[in-house]
Design goal:
Blueprint (H helix, E strand, L loop, with lengths): L3 H16 L6 E5 L5 E8 L3 E6 L2 E7 L8 E7 L3 E2 L3 H8 L11 E13 L2 E10 L2 E15 L2 E11 L14 E14 L6
Antiparallel strand pairs: 1-4, 1-11, 2-3, 2-11, 3-6, 4-5, 5-7, 7-8, 8-9, 9-10, 10-11
């Protein structure tokens, strides 16, 4: 027989479950010694390989449900480095990134989707040279264990979509730029 006590318990169960805190995305810090953002831009005469030396990210990660995770990335555009000073100075100027007017490149996630066991798609807004476009960033989970992990990916960015459209007549540059990223992160050490 269904007693009043059992009825009350049955009615209370959904409220108890709903009141439990859901797992939260935890802040993580970037392990800069094991992280990098690189790119390859092809032109008629060569493939320019480069990287950004100064950048930071605000990452909140839920490794049990990646959909709860967020990332905001800020790159110091003037830290571009292709190992050729003359080319780097040109890239910092108005023909390319115009770092005096647009000192940062930013990415802010708007959603994370797990597509396979170790594969993610991070959707977000990329802002370069004052132009913002929605992009999808593929990510591979290299590992995540006990608050420490490594994620990497490669994506194609169409530079002209962001106003980085200079093309020298003698050495035209491809519109597609390959961006390769590798980010190691960890939960911060507990405060003492």
């Amino acid at each position: 027989m269904f007693t009043a006590r059992r009825l009350a318990a049955a009615l209370a169960l959904p409220m108890i479950v709903a009141a439990r805190p859901l797992p939260e995305a935890k802040p993580h810090v970037i392990d800069k010694a094991h992280s990098e953002i690189n790119f390859v831009a092809d032109s008629r005469m060569l493939s320019a390989h480069g990287f950004f030396g100064k950048w930071d990210a605000d990452v909140k990660l839920d490794a049990t449900k990646y959909e709860n995770s967020t990332i905001s990335l800020t790159i110091d555009a003037s830290s571009i480095n292709t190992r050729v000073d003359m080319r780097d100075n040109h890239l910092r100027g108005p023909d390319f990134f115009d770092v005096a007017k647009f000192p940062t490149i930013t990415f802010k996630s708007t959603g994370v989707k797990q597509t396979a066991a170790n594969k993610l798609e991070i959707t977000g807004d990329l802002t370069v040279k004052g132009v913002t476009k929605k992009i999808v960033v593929p990510a591979s989970v290299m590992f995540y264990d006990k608050g420490v992990g490594r994620f990497r990916g490669t994506l194609t960015v169409l530079r002209k979509d962001f106003g980085v459209s200079y093309d020298p007549a003698v050495n035209p540059i491809e519109n597609e730029v390959q961006v390769q990223w590798d980010i190691a992160l960890k939960e911060p050490a507990p405060a003492k």
